[in-house]
Please model this.
Amino acid sequence: MERGDDITDGTAGGSGAITVTGRSTAKEIGDRVEVEWTLSAVPGLEWTEVFQFTEVGRRDGPVDWREGGGPDVVRDTVRWFVPSAELDDADAEVSRRLEVANQRCAP
Model:
């Protein structure tokens, strides 16, 4: 996925919904890659907390991935170290967390 490609349609929370406007990989460490998703706006504290603490289900893959932490929101960017083989699952999880945060924090 290149910058500018959406992984969500942005309709979950109405007209003020935050969307992903792009995704890039920053660096690799071993079999993990730091992924950065750019958001359409800088979210507020409540939205950030909902996004970060949303449970989205069970992960598949290495034990440190299955039992590891979630993504971090820093200003208008979501950052997460994920196993290279799990990028699609990370995209799906970020999309689901975004949807939940937009629904719970809708204006």
Q: What stands out?
A: Residues 20-104 form one domain. Residues 1-14 have pLDDT under 50 and may be disordered.
